[in-house]
Amino acid sequence: MKFNIVKIAGNIFLCGAMLLGTGCKDFLEETPPSNLTPDNFYTIPDHAEAAIAAVYADTRFIGNGAGIFSVTWQMLEAPTGTSTTETAQNSDLNNLYSLSYDGNTQHIINWWNGLYRVIANANLVLEKVPSITPMDAAQKARILGEAQFLRAWAYFYAVRLWGDVPLITKPQTINSPDFLPSRTSQEEVYQLIVDDLTAAENAGLAWMNANGRVSQAAVKSLLAKVYLTMAGQPLNKGASHYKLAADKANEVITYANANPATINLFPTYGDVHLETKKNIVEHLFMIQYNILVAGNPMQDMHPNFKPVTFAGNAGTGSTVPTRSFYESYEDGDLRTKDREGYFYTSYFQSGNGAPFELGAPYIFKHFNVIANGTAGVAGTRNNNLNVPMIRYAEVLLIYAEAQNELGGPTQEAYNAFKRIRDRAQLTTPELGTYDQNTFREAVWRERWHEFCYEFITWFDMVRLRKVYNETTQGFDNFVGHVNLGSNQALQEKHLLFPIPRPEMQNNENLRPQNPGYPQQ
């Protein structure tokens, strides 16, 4: 039996053809109807639905393993200085914390492979689905809009991580002219991102989708985030793009104000990581997890060998908050209150037993109380919690920051900023006490404290070229800032990650390596 293995949109199809004698040549030349290829797979609407489902599934690469006690997502947290580790077994993770990573670091390799897998399968959807006939026009438009959002989402990560990256918009084979692509300028990559998101805006998507599919709110919010990034470093588009960011964020805020039951801030921080509140209200876009397919990958935030879950002493503690960052919150900030905010300093033995002190603060933001247990209630042991990518809280602070950059704080910018602080039960100085600079830094601080451990802080550091200093409560220049968790200083080279070494070995067109990293 000979097997032809054909990969289509994340699925593997095995097709057999019996090895028969030469007398059956004509029979052997007949195309087996079960031999699925990209050319004959995309023929009915169900194929389109299966293909876009595979692109969504590909986004779960952030949960892929990166060696012992480590996962891909940790690459975007370890270098920020807001976390440290209680385990030392993973050399790649240690290199991320110590800012000594290079193109061999597994997390970096995983991010590259994962993002380009999303892009490749989104390209297949965008190339093949338009020709499916008959197919409901609204269904087709929705699927294409979702694919454009997901491709833009992946490229937005890629361009911020590596700068100039290959821009691939068509399905590839070994015979494709750009099978070994060169890198494309960041300007061109950002243009594709904006074009994709603008097209997705016009795809007829619902404002919100409790089923986890891309929504209009997600598209507009991501576009606002893209414009905010383009306004800052390294493109420095400035006022024009701060205006675009503010206007796009305001579209979401305007809808939310008119429909507060649909889009809003959750009333409590517990709701942010409550399994029953996935894909609704504050959660505008999430990576979907279900234990039947893939369980939530954030368990590396559990304390090292402290029995906070049903599994007992099973945590790795490979991402834990630095004491300095935890203590940088204002006194009385509800986000630091034990088991009510984003941290916890005590829990229940084996998830639901006697309370005990942890001896240090740990990250509660992604802790699933339903799966792991809580006071007197045994956990289900099934961690179906999604991973948040865009929350409404971020839309509010995008608006506040962008609007302020257009000439100083307005009442609307102040109101958006204050809503974040109100939920934290903090007193906010009156609008008139701020000037443009003090309001700017106040919004930045709020971003550090609200979005810690959500893969956002690193990109704020890069676009602002500033890093929050927990000691002074101010902001240092990126280059030269010392991460207190590792006592290592950020360098110019850290503004970009290195191109993965295996990619450069396989494709000479990716050279040269990003500045400051070994060129091999």
Automatic annotation (TrEMBL):
It is found in: Cell outer membrane. Pfam families: SusD-like_3, SusD_RagB. Residues 359-517 form the RagB/SusD domain. The keyword Nucleotide-binding does not apply. Residues 26-228 form the SusD-like N-terminal domain. Keywords: Cell outer membrane, Membrane, Signal. SUPFAM superfamilies: TPR-like. Belongs to the SusD family. This is RagB/SusD family nutrient uptake outer membrane protein. It comes from Rhodocytophaga aerolata. The lineage of its organism: Bacteria, Pseudomonadati, Bacteroidota, Cytophagia, Cytophagales.
